[in-house]
Amino acid sequence: MRKAAVFLLICVLFLSCILPAASAELLPAQERISGEFAYVLKDDGSAMITRYEGKQAVLNVPQALDGIAVTAVGSHTFQANDALTEVTLPEGIVSLGDYAFLHCDNLVKVSLPASLTEVGLNPFTGCELLASLAVAADNPNLRIEEDVLFSLDDKRLIRYPMGKESGAYTIPGGIRIIGASAFDQCENIEEILIPDETALTAIGRRAFYQCDNLRAINLENANISTIGADAFGGCRGLEKLAFPEKITSIAERAFQDCSGLKELILPEAITSIGEMAFRNCESLVSIRLPEGVTAIGKNTFAGCKELTEVFFPEDLSYIGGGAFQNCESLKALELPEAVDYIGSEAFDGCIALEDIEIPDMCSFIGSYAFSRCQSLKHLVLPSYVSSINPFTFSGCIALTGIELPEELEEIGENAFFCCYALKEIVIPDPVEVIGDYAFSNCVSLETVELPADLESVGPNTFEKCGSLTDLPDLSDLYEE
């Protein structure tokens, strides 16, 4: 006992020696308070402002705090400060962080110094009233043309004013990057024009987010390989989009809620489409996926209510959760032979789906994958599926027959809940477990062939199956 106590004491002493040094490395830089400002010290000993708690309407940011020169304004520093109307950044500040003035709703004027050379993701996102943005004439990196802020260093369009009265805007020929949130919530913009000879190589995240009246943008001449996350999210007026031939990926939510998008032609170079990329594109009727796409991510086309046809690439192997959830106009689908995974809720709520052939190589079908497919009448499950997950076919009220694989081992709870038209079911011998409510409310079910070695069944598995009269007593198999 004494040896154990001594050993424990040695361990405590050892840890007390090493942990303070290790913890110091993990802690963030210590924030200091100076009046209405909070700041941290940078590696060069200068100060970076991290928060402003004041309520001044007109603010001249100090050149120094506690005698320490201020050289940077951090990300989100003035976020949602409704008191601010005018801000002047002093000489000496070289860096302005991401979204520094995010949603400063009453901000109307900002003056930037000549020393400022580094500007993060649109610092003025959501500043709807900001009409006057001035840059010192001798600033070597920043310029303003027609109220639009540019960075010369990386040839980036940083910020287009939210309230600018302009129906159409032409991206200058030398610009390589449309920055993150550059046109965020610019409701007056209707068309983006890109010159035939353009240097454009990138569109950042949220670049055109919620530009409700944006109807057209022609990207065919751009040399971009990817479209950033949320780039066109909420552009409800966008009806047609021409992609550049070299584009290889579309990031997550890139076109989510583009409810007016009717036509979509994806170049063959695309190999990756992010999750929710076209979610709630309610007017989209048809989609042909490029041959290089092998996976459809989570909720990629969920809520595309007018989608009637989908052309899949031959090598598609993965259909993610909710990929086509609530695609209410889909009637028939032919899945490629390579598909081996169908995620949870993949086709949930496809109320018009009458016919779908699941390839025999498919080994996984997730929970709710075909729930509420009210028009689905018959289905053959692949031989490699060993388990029917919970709620997989719940609410398939027109399902009259389903062929289960011979090697099936388990049927999950509520798997066939409310399959009103199902009349008979043959459950293969390897099945040992049938979950509770698996066939509950199957009011037309007349015949069930149960496996000989069934070990467990829920007490409500066949609840409200009024047409089922010859079911044996299963009470000794009820799950505890």
Plain-language structure description:
About 5% of the residues lie in helices and about 25% in strands. The protein is mainly beta. Among the domains are: about 20-135, Leucine-rich repeat, LRR (right-handed beta-alpha superhelix) (Alpha-Beta Horseshoe); about 140-255, Ribonuclease Inhibitor (Leucine-rich repeat, LRR (right-handed beta-alpha superhelix)). The strands form eleven sheets. Strands 1, 2, 3, 5, 6, 8 and 10 form a seven-stranded mixed β-sheet that branches. The protein has a five-stranded mixed β-sheet with strand order 12-13-14-16-18, with no helix packed on it. It has a five-stranded parallel β-sheet with strand order 15-17-19-21-23, with no helix packed on it. Strand 5 and strand 6 form a beta hairpin.
Low-confidence stretches: 1-28
Kindly name the structural category. Answer: mainly beta
Estimate what percentage of residues fall within beta strands.
15-25%
CATH H level, superfamily name of the domain at 19-135: Ribonuclease Inhibitor
Helix fraction, binned, reads: under 10%
Output mean pLDDT: 92
**Structure summary, number of beta strands:** 40
> If you consult CATH, what is the topology of the domain at 19-135?
Leucine-rich repeat, LRR (right-handed beta-alpha superhelix)
Q: Can you count the helices?
A: 1
Biggest sheet character: 7 strands, mixed
- The first-to-last residue Cα distance is 44 Å
Architecture of the domain at 19-135 in CATH?
Answer: Alpha-Beta Horseshoe
What is the class of the domain at 19-135 in the CATH system?
Answer: Alpha Beta
Rg over CA atoms: 30 Å
Which of globular, elongated, flat, extended, rod-shaped describes the shape?
A: elongated
